[in-house]
Amino acid sequence: MLLHGRCRKSSWEVFDVELDNISEGGCCVAGGPDQFQSGQLLSLRFANLRNIDADVRWVRDGKVGIEFRVPLKRGVIAELKRAYGIAVGVPGSRRPALFTNR
Asked: Could you tell me if residue 36 is inside a domain?
């Protein structure tokens, strides 16, 4: 199950995204890889969280690897899983499982 979010690349470029594999350290954006480039700075907003500054780490196979500049607190991941029934990253990991497949 994917979680809906909003991505801001600049003050005038804001669009919807579907997030997957969320962990304390980052997530994946499913689809739309042509909108992203490795090294790009962006801001994500999802669930009831404030804007999260992040960097694009990779783009491949129709997905985009995102690393949060400040990791989410541990309890946030458990709450997202409980509230939204979403897939989360490797338990205890600060990085999504897909980050380990470089």
From this structure: yes
Tens-place pLDDT, residues 6-51: 999 998 999 999 999 999 999 999 988 889 999 999 999 998 889 9
Q: Is residue 23 assigned to a domain?
A: yes
**Nearest C-alpha neighbor of 44 from the set 15, 83, 81:** 15
The answer to whether 2 touches 87, Cβ cutoff 8 Å, is no
Give the list of residues 6+ apart from residue 61 with CB closer than 8 angstroms, or none. Answer: none
Cα 64 to the center of its chain, rounded Å = 8
Q: How many residues does the chain have?
A: 102
What CATH number does the domain containing 41 carry? 2.40.10.220
Query: What total number of domains does the chain contain?
Result: 1
Q: Are 3 and 70 spatial neighbours (Cβ–Cβ below 8 Å)?
A: no
Contact 23, 90 (CB under 8 A): yes
